Amino acid sequence: MIQAIWEQVLNLTLFVVLLRVTVPILLSALGGMISMVGGVVNIGLEGIMLLSAFSSIAVGAATGSWLLGVVAGVIISILVSMLMGFFSIKLKVDIIIVGFAVNILGSGLTIFLMNKIYGLTGNYSPEQLNRIPSIHIPFIEQIPIIGKLLSGHNLMVWVSIIAVFLCLVLLYRTPHGIHLRAVGESPEAAASLGISVDRMQFIALAWSGLFAGLAGAYLSMGMTSMFVKDMTAGTGFIALAVVMLGGSNPVGILIGSLIFGLGSTITTIVQTIPGNQIPSQFVQMIPYVVTILALIILAIRKKKKQLELTSQSTTQS
Amino acid sequence: MKKRSLWLSCIAILSLILVVTGCGGAATTKKSGETNVLYYVNGSLGDKGFVDSAQRGIEKARKELGIKTKTVEGGTNQADWASGLESLISGGKYDLVVVGTSQMVDSVKELSQRYPDVKFIFFDDVVKDSPNVYSMTYSQSDGSFLAGAFAGLVTTSKELKAANPDKVIGFIGGQDIPIINDFKYGYEQGAKYIDPQIQVVASYVGDFVNAPKAKDQALSQYNTQKVDISFNVAAGAGLGLLEASHDVGKYSIGVDSNQNALYPGSVLTSMMKNIDESIFRALSMYKEGKLKFGTHEVLGLKEKGVGLAKDKLYEEHVPKDIQDKMKEIEQKLVNGDIQVKSLLKNNK
């Protein structure tokens, strides 16, 4: 069995599946990270993704353009996160409650709209749909290993990788990012310097809407070409776990997403090996066991660091 | 000031209770002789499969038998189902409740004891020892045997272009639960009947909604495990499998209702549980007063409870000799020359 997995590592199947699975987690986790940096915890990622998945496929199928579909999904997501901002920042409702409301709304509203618009309640798969294209790079495609590594991936794979660098630059190399971090770390101090805390938090939520929107559009128009009710199936919550794991560092988010992606990739691969004797329930546990292990390791490292810091300060004094 | 608002709210609540109970009272009065049937969906309509099929049976009964029907969708939260169903029954508005699937067995058993006047038609699993429940199950092992035999013929076919020489066929189930595994068991028997060397690659999605995950598993089966035909037993999530078969130009088998038209040429056939027909049959027997409550029936190929979807698309895309062989196998099943074993004790 291990040999079968190893075979798929060697022929890069594991890598290709890993990329495909990681994209929605990575994008929505980046969104969750930016809002976290700005001091608002957006737990509505799951609902926003669902709304985006539905609106992007609806617009994409109606107009025949995947680009318009993705744009529509992103716009809806940003609007919903603005709405979250209105409730939490202006009306001072607890952001956790608003997030839960958005998650419930996402599930219910998409089914409701699907019923009203298409007369369906379970799933919607349009006959004519231009999916988000895959990028085939000429010449490189023909090179044996590098071809499979670089070519043939969905456009969103590249978008998500670029997004990681974009976030790095945005947060750590621009005044805007410094303002965001300031607002998140110490709102009073930021306000005393003339930064509008409310405005920055609205922008932070908008960023998270943008990324969660891209993730949602990828689910319905990149990975598949259909919308199935509740199709996010917990991706938004996994993204939140990645945010806890990766902290405010985009590279950490990338690594965290890859860990989760690897977990579910291995689940898929183990389950499709002929004659596999492991009970499916155990295999399906892998991503969650990985989460717990990752969080334990993180906690131990943090504690060590703290101990080191305190011992340093005591020796100095 | 505070006291006054307390009084006001008390009055408001009391009047609300009066209005609500008043409404309930009005609704319970019904004309005698009229049959009111409730179909409670534990989930929501629109899966293009299982629950939609049941709804078709209800619709047909409404039109042809002249009974009053009402369909209520319970949503995805399992915790709501029992209380949702009870609140509908306790109104006393319905004489007959149609409800199904193994997730509902315990709650229906309890409700049938508490509301002995209400009759239940239960499909797809058995509620035992309840005199007011008629249960019917479908021999998924029978139907899946056919699907397995069909997949076996496809994977060994030289005529079908996308069939590779490797004798490997796929199976994607929703959850690792007895009913789904009974599908698998029948499927394996059918495949082995064609060629004992055929291997079945089985994966489980973990739920019935995660279409992207089902698609990934299917792609992995097709691309790396040399599967050329895979069997969808994962309801909504299984649509991901059907799409994957279309994307890579391989084959798949639909489930529960006729899914051939979703991706013509890729979805070669569907293993149907004829839930619509069985519910219509039960309802018409009920109307004639012949339905035996407190009993359980297994509907197999012979009773037309299960079968493969053979429409125009099937005739167009499936080679003639496979069609002929399938007919032969079906005949043998009906005659009892082939005995399909089931994992479930209730079936046979």
Mean pLDDT over the residues of chain B: 84
> What's the Cα radius of gyration of chain B?
23 Å
Low-confidence segments of chain A: none
Largest sheet of chain B: 6 strands, parallel
The helix/strand order of chain B is: HEHEHEHEEHEHEHEHEEHEEHH
Count structural domains of chain A. Answer: 1
Biggest sheet of chain A: strands side by side, in what order?
A: 1-4
The coarse overall form of chain A would be: globular
- CATH topological fold name of the largest domain in chain B: Rossmann fold
* Alpha-beta classification of chain B: alpha/beta
Mean pLDDT of chain A: 86
Please indicate the percent range of residues of chain A in DSSP E strands (runs of 2 or more).
Answer: under 5%
Q: Tell me the distance between the termini of chain B.
A: 72 Å
Most extensive interface, chain pair and sizes? A-B, 38 and 40 residues
User: According to CATH, what is the class of chain A?
Assistant: Mainly Alpha
The CATH architecture category of the largest domain in chain B equals 3-Layer(aba) Sandwich
| Helix coverage percent of chain A | over 70%
**Total number of helical segments of chain A?**
13
State the name of the first-level CATH class of the largest domain in chain B: Alpha Beta
